[in-house]
Amino acid sequence: MLRIYFGLLLFLCFPLLALGANQESYSSPSQLPHVKSQMLTAGFWISQHTSVDKIVLTPVQIDAFNNNVRNQLKVTKDIFSITDNFQTEALVDVFNKSLESFKSKGYYTFDGTQNNIELLEKAKNNEHLSGLVLGVAPRYGIVVSNTDQRFLPTIEGLYAQKGGIDFDELQNSGLNLGTAVAVVHQSRDRKWLYVLSALSDGWVEAKDIAIADVKAVKNFVQAKEFIVVTSPKADIFLDEQMTRFQDYVRMGVKLPLLEENNNGWVIQLPIKDKEGQLQLKKGYIPKQQAHRGYLPYTARAIYTQAFLMLDKPYGWGDMKGHQDCSRFLQMVYATVGIELPRDSKNQAQVGEEIVSFGEKVSNKEKLEGLIKVQGALIILPMKGHIMLYLGNVNGIPFVIHETSGYSQTKGEMQVKYTLNRVVVSDLSLGENSAKGSLLRRLTKIVEVK
After folding, report:
1. CB contact set of 174 (below 8 Å; sequence gap of 6+)
2. What CA dihedral angle connects 351, 354, 359 and 364, to 10 degrees?
3. What pLDDT shows up at residue 422?
4. What is the structure's pLDDT at 19?
5. CA-CA distance, 68 to 270, in Å (whole number)?
6. What is the per-residue pLDDT for 158?
7. Whole-structure pTM over 0.85, yes or no?
8. Where are the beta strands (DSSP E) in 295-359?
9. Which of 404, 409, 383 minimizes the C-alpha distance to 23?
10. H runs (alpha helix) in 260-312
C-alpha cells in the first residue's frame, strides 16, 4: 500500500540555518553526502515502490479530504462563505498585533538600519484603520499577475539579520495568477488591498487584482473544464503561435480550459481593464506544460512532479517567484487535486498520523519506523520544515525537500552550507550541528489520505 507522509516544524518554512558568532558560510557540494547520481531521478524511486500506480484516493475521496481540511481542521478556507461569519472589526486586532510583533523584534532594513520605527509607523498609517468599514461584505476579485502577499502594506523589507535579504520577515506568501480573493480593506494610499485567499491572508498590491462580482469569480475558479499546470512554471502566451509572452503560472495552478488545439491549451486568462474590473481573454499554454484535469493520485505522479522541481531555487515565502519547503509540497500535491495548507505548521495537521516520536525516542527506533513506509511527508520540530519521504536504500531513509541549507560543527565553528534549492538528501544531514540531524529532529509521520 502506498503511503505518503509528512511531519512538523513551524509557520512557513523557517530557514534551517542562520549565521551568528563563530560561524562561517560555504557553498554546498553539488551532490550531497550518501546520495548517488541515480537517486536524482524519479525513476529510481518509482522502481523501489511496490504499488507505484495504485490510486491512493479517488476524486470523490479527494473532495472529502479537502472538505475535512477546510471545514473540520479549518486550516484552509472557502472565501465565498466568509460572509457567514466574517467580522471586519477583527482586522483591527490582526493589524495591531502584527505591527507590535515587528516593533519588538529589532529587525534590520535593507540599508542595515535596525529597529526602523519610522518605517513601521509609515506602514501603520497606510493601514488606514480609521477607514475600516465595519460590517460590510467583502468584494471579490482575481489575481491577474503573480504577486507577493505582505504582512504590512509596503514593499520595503525587514530582515532578522543584517544583510540577510533573502529572508524578508514582511513576506507572508505569494499569490498565483488566477487566485480568487476576497477584498476586505484598502490602504490609505489606495495602492494596497488586504485580501483573503483559500490559503493565506495579507496585503497585495492593488494593481495585481481585478475586481468582479462574486458569480464571475466563482465561475472562473470552479470551472468544470480546466487544466492544471504540471511543469515547474508554465508560459502563458497571447497568441496561438505562442510568440507573445504574457506571464507564467506555477505548478499546481488550475485555469479554466476553453479548448485544446494542435499547439496546446487555450485557457481563460484573467486581465484587468482600465476601471480595475475583471475581463477574460484567451491565453495559450504549451501542451507539455499542463494536463487536462488533475493527475491521478498515485506514488508515480507525486514522485514525478516532485523531481520536476529538483534544483529549483528556494524562495522564502515565495520571494522572487520561487518557493519554500511547504509551498514546494503544496504545489506538488495540487497537481493531483489535494489542497494542502500553505505553511508547514498547518500541513502537519492534515491526513492520518502513522506514528509520533517523543523526545526520548532514539534514532534507531525512528529508522525502524521509517523503513516500513514509502512516500512520506516528514515533519520536524521547532523551526518549520517539511519534506517528502522517498524511501530507503540499505536501511538509509532519503527525502526530497526545498531547503536553504544545513550546518555542521567543525571544532568550535559552526559551518553553514548554502543550498537554496530542492535537493535529495538522507536524514543524517546536519548531524554534527548544534540543532542535530534531520532524523534526530523528526517528530512524526502523517499519511496524506
Report:
1. 146, 147, 148, 149, 315, 317, 318, 319, 321, 327
2. -140
3. 97
4. 47
5. 30
6. 96
7. yes
8. 352-356
9. 409
10. 299-308
